[in-house]
Amino acid sequence: MILNNTQIQHFNDNGYLLVKDALAPEDLNPLIAEFKEIVNAGATQLYENGELNSSYETEGFDTRLAKITEQSPVVFQKLFSGAHTGPALFKLLVNPKLLDIAESLVGPEIMCHPAYRVRPKLPEHDRTLVPWHQDAGYMEPACDTVLQLTIWIPLIDATVENGCLEVIPHAHRDGVFRHRRVKGKPYLDIPPKALPDVEPVIVPVNFGSVLLFTNLTPHRSIPNVSNQVRWSVDARYQDASKPTGYQPEAGFLARSRQNPETVVTSPTEFKRIRDEHQPGPGPQRWTEEEIHDA
Fold first, then answer.
1. How far apart are CA 63 and CA 70, in angstroms?
2. What are the pLDDT tens digits along the chain (294 aa)?
């Protein structure tokens, strides 16, 4: 799906864009099946080990992981990361529909950024409540001027109730805001006093639609007050000639006219690359501090 000029202008002006019906069920269902298999295998093993009261096999994709995690974090921890390297995830990351969108914004030489992530957001769960930040806050400063495009892909309808994203429009024009690394917290956040004085926009995203935003767009996920697991994937793309700024993880070339022979085309090669460059803490550009100005 190539973006039209109106969509590109909206993205450039606002720092985000909702693209409705970008993907069909057949684009997403294989990944859902892949995640279901992991959840089922984990639940079965935990139940056999006596660590669960039930394997919760009658629960749906949108509720089963939440039930399991109430008693054990093992399956959740396996999925909530950049460590998953299944073939269905690879096929989604290199889906031509997503690469066409990315090409509209970053050009024809497309690197799949190393910081892709799987995000099962659990109900009332602190670990999956992500505060205000810019993705650039996690990257090296040399990448602050590189467009690193996030394509945020929900695997169920992302609603206000189950914790969709909220963005601050136009603020991507103001560079990287101050972030802080708070002791005992898993995420960077932008302190309230450093946030721009701009009204945020909550963006529900239906299954099949995707949300685009820049690495400089402040965003957060709002609380999940439903009984659902809001499953989503963060796919990120950029010009392959630019630095990714996120060592030690490795991205891979997803599309190239200049060097088509170096494009990664197989799930096996994708897994090899990822296994050789395990997810790490990323750049440490912000000092740790206590909260005094919240």
1. 11
2. 899 999 999 999 999 999 999 999 999 999 999 999 999 999 999 999 999 999 999 999 999 999 999 999 999 999 987 789 999 999 999 999 999 999 999 999 999 999 999 999 999 998 899 999 999 999 999 999 999 999 999 999 999 999 999 999 999 999 999 999 888 888 999 999 999 999 999 999 999 999 999 999 999 999 999 999 999 999 999 999 999 998 778 899 999 999 999 999 999 999 999 988 866 666 778 876 654 444
236's tokens = 């990120």
Q: What contacts 267, CB < 8 A, 6 or more positions away?
A: 85, 86, 87, 90, 91
Burial of 178-204, coded b for 16+ CB within 10 Å and e otherwise, reads ebbbbeeeebbbbbeeebbeeebeebb
Q: Which helix (H) or strand (E) holds 118?
A: strand 117-121
Rounded CA-CA distance 266/252 in Å is 11
Structure tokens at 166: 């909220």
Torsions phi, psi for 156 (to 5 deg): -140, 170
Q: How far apart are CA 114 and CA 252, in angstroms?
A: 7
User: 145: burial class by Cβ within 10 Å (0-12, 13-18, 19+)?
Assistant: exposed
55 contacts 67 by C-beta, under 8 angstroms: no
Contacts of 128 (CB under 8 A, 6+ apart): 80, 119, 120, 121, 122, 163, 221, 224
SS3 content of the chain, % helix, strand, coil (to 5): 30, 20, 50
CA distance 56 to 67: 7
Residue found by looking up tokens 């695997």 in the block: 155
Identity at 193, one-letter amino acid code? K
